[in-house]
Amino acid sequence: MENIITPSPSSYSISLTHDTDSRNSSIIHKLESCKSLKELKQIHSYIIKTSPTLPHQTQQLVYTTIISISARTSNHVPDITYIHSLFNKLENPTIDLYNIVIRSFNHSNQNPLFALLFYSDLLVKGLIGDSFTYPYVLKSCTLSYALREGEQIHSHVIKNGFVLNLYVVNTLISFYGACGAMENAQKVFDESPERDLVTWTTLIQGYVKRGCLEKGMQVFYEMCEAGVRADEMTMVILISSCAKLRDINLGIKLHKYIYDHDLNFDVYICNALVDMYLKCGNPTLAIKLFNKMPLKNIVSWNSIILGLIQQGKFKIAMNVFKKMQSQKVKPDNITLVGVLNCCANLGTLKQGKWVHSYINKNGIKTDGFIGNALLDMYTKCGDIKKATYVFNHMKHKDVYTYTNMILGFAIHGEGQKALKLFSEMPKIGITPNDVTYLAVLMACAHCGFVKEGFNHFVNMLKVHNIKPQKEHYGCMVDLLGRAGLLSEAEDFIRNMNIEPDGLIWGALLAACGTHKNVEIGKRVMEKVDKMMDKDKDKDGAFILMSNLYSSENRFRDAFKLRKIMKERKIKKSPGCSSIEVDDVAYEFRKGDKSHQQTKEIYMLLDIMGKHLKNNDQIII
DNA sequence: TTAGGGTTAG
């Protein structure tokens, strides 16, 4: 590499003595060969030092060349001060040069609005933007969501007669769409005499981004009527919009459109389709398409894994992850969040720990999504110590981090710790949300903090303007019920601002079971029976009540209830738990005899039960 | 040197 820090004349060898043309081309060649902005600046200063009396024309050429090189080279981040200082030295910068610089800010990691400085500079110099300038400047406004500035540019577009330019029209629609000003976007669209696929797609995209999914679809139908054929990009936008609409029939029609119009089933289209089928509740079609995909990228794997998780198919999702590993596809943060979610729901602590060590080995930061997913996994898998460790080591905590940790403490019976954490939130500027309050109320319920629970329940609306939902009311019933305040719980339900459902009455019924209160239990049971539509959802309530009768020696009532269950074909759906042994998650249901070692399992269970009854310490 | 730049996470 050349020594450019202390350049010698031979290393640059710019021929300053030859004729003008050859000297100019030598300088340009040297500047063009620069690999960084630093090098460019060094050569510039070298030229100034060694030839302070360059002819005016050559000087201007040097400035123009430096500006265009520093602006157009992708690894040269535009240095706004430097470029601006060079611009000031130029007598007549051309509109082309302005365009190059303005464009460079759209591709840099600097504030795109810097482009506007150059645009106003251009106006000061008495120049007028051309058909390239406006798309570039509008793009800068789009990237910065600068509605007011963009509107001003729009007025310049009208004044300077560029409203008929399709590139300008399309960028205007995109700009208004990004800023959420869909009325303006639609107006530009309506007033344009010419429209192409980009115009239609941009308008559709605008509506979809705003969440106006049906309207976006309606524009697509209008586009079809206008005889414009969609391309792959249009279809991806429509399919993902359809996924959000959860409309499988529409999804199938869009799928057919791709076939009928001979579009490419590229990786984007396939990913969008897989995601759509999963979100619309058809994992079979999603898996079929996924298996047929000729080319898969990380998004394909993530879409299928996360989609299966959304469907509650954690084991299948885990198997897909294993397949992904066997094909040597490197998981990214999104995959890991999904896998941790699986571990949390399957209770597979060992696999969760493996993911944690993978994260550490690969230097992935345990912040944000990843940190929260790790925390969730440890709390749900019952390792509160590790969960606390993860929490304490997270640098950037957000409302999800706090909610997770509070919930962790709540379900582990550490109510004081949960409430202490909750009290820390406002101090560091994190506002609790509805789920945070659910965790707080759970903590109070699990630890018998009736007074605190009520205070928090009131503060939800009073302090944070969060309207309590059914789940919060359910927690309050649970809180009173667990504390044995059964009549209070019954009154609470009757005075609620929302209509109680079977689940809320069910929470009270469970408390009646715990505290052996047959009278209230009987009343509540009748309520549950009336409230719940489907008999099959009442199984838990019937069993609870029948057990309550039995525990109070009212066997005749218990028998009567069981008889009703039989007549109405109400069957108890078996509770399910899972255990992880040697990386395999085993699920168990009551009466399940499908495991090979069923005999040994039940024998051990029997022994453990006896020990537990005697309060023995169990060592296996 | 032009425009839409598309798919996956609470």
Automatic annotation (TrEMBL):
The keyword Cell membrane does not apply. PPR repeats lie at residues 196-230, 266-296, 297-331, 398-432. SUPFAM superfamilies: HCP-like (SSF81901). GO terms for biological process: RNA modification. Keywords: Repeat. The keyword Aminoacyl-tRNA synthetase does not apply. It holds the Pfam family PPR_2. GO terms for molecular function: RNA binding. PANTHER family: PENTACOTRIPEPTIDE-REPEAT REGION OF PRORP DOMAIN-CONTAINING PROTEIN, PENTATRICOPEPTIDE REPEAT-CONTAINING PROTEIN. Belongs to the PPR family. PCMP-H subfamily. NCBIfam families: PPR (TIGR00756). This is Uncharacterized protein. It comes from Lactuca virosa.
